[in-house]
Design a protein that fits this description.
246 residues, 10 helices, mainly alpha
């Protein structure tokens, strides 16, 4: 894995991606997958690597948001009930590389829109999520999380905000734990189907954690990195294009 061409540039960009995602309560899998696509990682390496990076960075992000008092258990549980088993199911399924790339490209559109703050407006009239709504939303996101190798927060956060189920900080805290449980479940599904990790994977984890720790800390406070997010959105758009047309 570390023999990939321009690996040092990849290692330089990785903590920047984890910083920006962790600052908004995300693990960063869509960003890691986009980077790996740009650096021509093999699809069979991308999925488990993104999940394990997600596991560590989302865990750090959740710790800081929870510590800041933003986590709402009653908002999290309805999504988690269905997402955990379906993320495991998705993790056991291997799909054709070309189909994998197309689905990932579509999901990256959500990441781009989130980084551009299209879903960034908060509402004061917060509504309670109904159990059936949480089960449907969580189940669908969970399945694709395991299938593609993301945690699903990049999709869940916009939905929470659009449907007025929570404010920005609450959405970030819930999404961070949602990402963690889905990543763990999807990873178990991967391991049960025979996937194994190279030792180099944990080098990537250590590098990503540097950005994740800083991003989780400052994001749970009052950081604003909009210019950097525009740059990341541009990088994601390039990766999206590459995935669609290569």
């Amino acid at each position: 894995m570390l023999e990939i061409e321009n690996i040092y540039l990849f290692l330089l960009l990785l903590p920047i991606v984890s910083f920006l995602y962790a600052s908004v309560g995300h693990g960063g899998a869509s960003g890691y997958l986009a980077l790996m696509a740009l650096f021509s990682f093999a699809p069979e390496v991308m999925k488990p690597t993104a999940l394990i990076l997600n596991l560590f960075v989302a865990g750090i992000s959740f710790f800081y948001y929870y510590k800041g008092g933003h986590f709402k258990k009653n908002l999290f549980i309805p999504f988690a009930i269905a997402s955990i088993p379906l993320a495991f199911l998705g993790g056991t399924i291997e799909i054709d590389a070309s189909i994998y790339k197309k689905i990932l490209a579509i999901l990256l559109v959500f990441a781009i829109l989130k980084m551009l703050n299209v879903f960034g407006k908060e509402k004061e009239d917060i509504k309670k999520v109904k159990l059936w709504q949480g089960l449907v939303v969580g189940g669908i996101i969970g399945f694709f999380s395991g299938l593609i190798g993301i945690g699903g927060g990049i999709i869940l956060t916009p939905i929470i905000l659009l449907l007025h189920w929570g404010n920005m900080k609450e959405a970030a805290a819930v999404s961070a734990l949602f990402i963690w449980v889905n990543s763990a479940s999807g990873l178990v599904g991967q391991l049960s189907s025979g996937v194994h990790f190279e030792i180099e994977t944990f080098v990537l984890v250590a590098v990503a954690l540097i950005g994740g720790i800083l991003g989780g800390y400052y994001g749970s406070k009052k950081i604003n990195n909009q210019k950097l997010r525009y740059i990341l959105a541009f990088v994601l758009a390039i990766a999206c294009f590459k995935l669609f047309f290569t």
